[in-house]
Amino acid sequence: MDILYSLDKGFCKQLIVSVYSVIKNTKKSLRIFIVSDSLPMKYKKVLKKISSDKRINIIYLDAPIVPAKLIPDRGGISQYYRMFIGEIFNDINIKRVIYLDADTLIVNDKIELLEDIDLKGKILGGCLDPWGRLYRKPLGLRKGAKIFNSGVLVIDVLKWKLNHIDCYISQDIDKHKKFRQGDQGILNRVFENNFFVLQPNFNSIDIYFSMSYEELLLYRKPISFYKEKEVEKARRNPVIVHFTSSYIQNRPWVKGSKNPFSKQWISCYDSVMGEKIVLSPPKKVFLTMINDFLPPKISRKILSFLQSVVRPIIWRHNTK
Question: What share of the chain is helix, strand, coil (3-state, %, to 5)?
Fold first, then answer.
């Protein structure tokens, strides 16, 4: 089974935990490809230690060349590495790869299903992201287009190369001056309505645990999204937990995290690193303050309006 990570030095701790969780939740032979231009030797030594089993091979790859105009609107430049699959695997014999963000935690062996899952002829498979109707236009997508989260992807590398997807991505970059949602915006344009939809338990994002389905619909007002029973399954029986940022609760490496898998993440880190993790102090953002200091009914209405209406309008204005 082939796994790919791309990251910068800010997510080394997260990488260690994610790789460890992959190894612990499969008995398959593993090739774990890591694309990073700044992984300290300290973490490479830890990765070597946890991959001492002969069935595991960790391979470090050079970062692809990222066009200078790709200035991230969120996260670091490393998010763009995963877009250039053809360049990354140019000289490597590989049929399919499972891409994972470093801030993921694999919680059972069902991840093995992704190695052989039928993509129905598609080049890429991903889980839907709950974006509202007004976000399609600033992202350059048609009305009603499905949007996937790029934190967990199943990629048919052979078809990617044969169809010269790197070239289509470069063409998309040439056509635009500003880029919303980093790599995710670009990938969703290139694969607009032409990707395989994975079940959400393969990418159980934070909002599934911090909100009920009804609250999610109110807050994000998503279209072309999963049914309630599918999201409930992702909450109760996740395969991959994705610690995306949230105004409601912190991620495991930040003080005050209430995600039900935070303790498991911390336990993995402490076990692998042989030391107690020093949690980062929480940051109070504007949305968090609204949520904390206003009555729930009022705060939810305000936050929903800001998220589903104001934010996409600002995006549209700044994209012009």
Answer: 45, 15, 40
Question: Which amino acid is located at 174 in the chain?
Answer: D
Give this prediction's pTM. 0.94
Q: Give the DSSP H/E element, type plus range, for residue 105.
A: strand 104-106
Under 8 Å between Cβ of 166 and 85: yes
Q: What is the phi/psi pair of residue 178, to 5°? A: -125, 150
How many other CB atoms sit within 10 Å of the CB of residue 33?
20
Q: How far apart are CA 234 and CA 185, in angstroms?
A: 24
Say if residues 104 and 190 touch (Cβ distance below 8 Å). Answer: no
Task: State the distance between the two ends of the chain, measured CA to CA, in whole angstroms.
Answer: 43
Asked if pLDDT for residue 269 goes beyond 70, the answer is yes
63-96 b/e (C-beta count within 10 Å ≥ 16 → b): bbebeeebeeeebbebbbbbbbbbebbeeeebeb
Read off the pLDDT of residues 36-53 as tens digits, 9 standing for 90 and up.
Answer: 988 899 999 999 999 988
pLDDT tens digits for range 228-255 = 999 999 999 999 999 998 777 789 999 9
Q: Which CATH superfamily groups domain 2-247?
A: Spore Coat Polysaccharide Biosynthesis Protein SpsA; Chain A (3.90.550.10)
Alpha helices (runs of H) in 207-261, residue ranges in sequence order? 207-210, 213-220, 228-236
Of the pLDDT bands very low, low, confident and very high (cuts 50, 70, 90), residue 294 is confident
Domain ranges (residues) in the chain = 2-247
Does the pLDDT value for residue 291 go beyond 80?
no
- Supply the mean pLDDT for the chain: 92
Q: How confident is the model at residue 318 (pLDDT cuts 50, 70, 90)?
A: low
Residue keyed to tokens 């946890």? 50
Q: Which residue has the tokens 């919303």?
A: 180
Least Cα distance to 248 among 259, 262, 235 occurs for 259
What single-letter amino acid sits at 318?
N
